[in-house]
Amino acid sequence: MPKRRVMFTFPPERIEEPVIYLLGRQFGVVTNIRRADVTENRGWVVLELEGADEDIDRGIAWVAAKGIRVDSASGDVVEG
Amino acid sequence: MSYATSLRCRKCGGEYPLKAVNLCDFCFSPLDVAYDYKAMSRRVSRQALSSGPPSMWRYRDLLPVEDPVVDIGTGFTPLTRCDNLGRELGLEQLYIKNDCLNPTYSFKDRAVAVAITKARELGFRTVACASTGNLAASVAAHAARAGLRAYVFIPADIEAGKVVGTAVYGPTVVAVEGSYDRVNALCNRLAEAYGWGFINISLRPYYAEGSKTLGYEIAEQLDWRSPDCVVAPSASGLLFTRIWKGLNELSMLGLIEPVNTHMHLVQAAGSSPIVNAYRAGTLHVHPVEPHTIAKSIAVGNPADGHYALKVVRESGGSASAVSDDEVIAGMKLLARTEGIFTETAGGVVIAGLQNMVRSGVIRRDELTVACITAAGLKTQEVVWDVVQPIVIQPTLESFKERVPAAGTAAEVR
User: Fold this and answer.
1) Alpha carbons B375 and B386: distance in angstroms, whole number
2) pLDDT digits (tens, 9 = 90+) for B294-348
3) Least packed by Cβ within 10 Å: which of A23, A25, B148, B345?
């Protein structure tokens, strides 16, 4: 199954929502957290997503639509 | 010969063989090349390094590659003492490290030279990168020299004229439609799906090491000492961390005294995630959406931002941002005082340096090196307003009338 390494950055209003749990449940994507730091103001989580490509795409779009930033865990690769 | 022993995770210390892999499987943190410094120290000396070729390859023993290297003449660029600019800014000992003078006119040649050499060594026949300019040109040029196929991915909204300096070397240029975020996502997937050497993804640990040579050169050109201050621009943060690493390696090898350099990082205000984190007092860099004319350093989610911040703190340096107007003023100031035409990232450096001197962050008597990372011909459009020729008729009278400030012919002699 394809895997993708991503970082979610949560705005304060989304920190208390079980976004990662719902992502796994609603889209059939296996989530595997590797690093994270969550405070009351902000949070970020580095995790691996495993599933069908379409499911990962749909899941990421759903997370992003909530105002949560989704980036690659390796940082931006488009350089100057 | 190379003294590289393995790849090591910066966070958890996990070790990996010297292959094309950039992230730790366990914690997804970046991997760095580890060396046998003890063996390296028996081989290198000031004299041995100084008698090497006038290029970055004089430091080959400190890099993770074997012969033959892919050499298009990169490195050992001038470190120029700049008294005119120093007077304007109020600095007694100012030097410009002029990396405009690399073969594809930017510091990226340092990183790419090592990455492409390693790609060939590892058996890759195709290399790739995603870039808006400098990196693309460098990868295409080095791939041409190495006899490798190259794929260069660019965002589709970049003007055609911007890719001439890349396309001329014969790579396959692919313009990707959609936002930068989408281009980023696609390239990460391409890197996984195709067995290419992706220069700034899978080959990133080696790519990173090439940038160290900027630090080595600064120290050697200052007659084997580390400056009091270095001012450098920051996009992904990689170059900034590697200048620091380069200086510290020389010290560890006993070639220079302990490093007391303050590392000052500058970003454009419209793309300053590292500066934001510095000001907020955190070591985590939250991504931003870049909006600046300094496109060569407009990276919203810097891969090495956290580590660049650590260098700022460890070295007692600073991180600051400058506006686009200041960037243009900085470009013009450097050109007018020293005859060096930099692209926007250099304008960021000069403007940032000016602010640091004004605010006392850098003291007047500190020996300061400002790193100019790419040439101005790449971003001419931001200073088009300087083109204001005085139009005259082809007669002496017309010239005298329209240009009275030129004085008399006798004065000119």
Assistant:
1) 17
2) 999 999 999 999 999 999 999 999 999 999 999 999 999 999 999 999 999 999 9
3) A25
ipTM of the shown complex: 0.86
A36 touches chain B (CB under 8 A): no
The confidence score (pLDDT) of residue B412 equals 53
pLDDT (tens digit per residue) in B10-59: 999 999 999 999 999 999 999 999 999 999 999 999 999 999 999 999 99
Residues of chain A where predicted confidence (pLDDT) is lower than 50: none
**A39 to each of A7, A16, A71, B67, B277, how far by Cα in Å?**
16, 10, 19, 50, 15
Q: How far apart are CA B163 and CA B255, in angstroms?
A: 41
Q: Which fold has domain B79-105+211-386?
A: Rossmann fold (3.40.50)
Round the average pLDDT of chain B to a whole number and report it. Answer: 95
Whether A52 and chain B come into contact, CB under 8 Å, resolves to: no
Query: What pLDDT sits at residue B134?
Result: 93
Candidate CATH numbers 3.40.50.1100, 3.40.50.300, 1.20.840.10, 3.50.70.10; the one for domain B120-206: 3.40.50.1100
Do the chains contact at B28 and A9, CB–CB below 8 Å?
A: no
Q: With an 8 Å Cβ cutoff, are B301 and A37 in contact? A: no
Sequence letter at residue B286: H
Pairwise CA distance, residues B141 & B131, whole Å: 14
Q: How deeply is B66 buried, as exposed, middle or buried, from its count of CB atoms within 10 A (0-12, 13-18, 19+)?
A: middle
For strands B172-176 and B149-155, give the pairing: parallel
Least CB–CB distance from A80: residue in B11, B295, B305: B295
- Judged by CB atoms closer than 8 Å, whether chains meet at A73 and B28 is answered as yes
- Decide: B344 and B322 in contact? Cβ < 8 Å: no
Strand duo B368-372 + B94-98: pairing: parallel
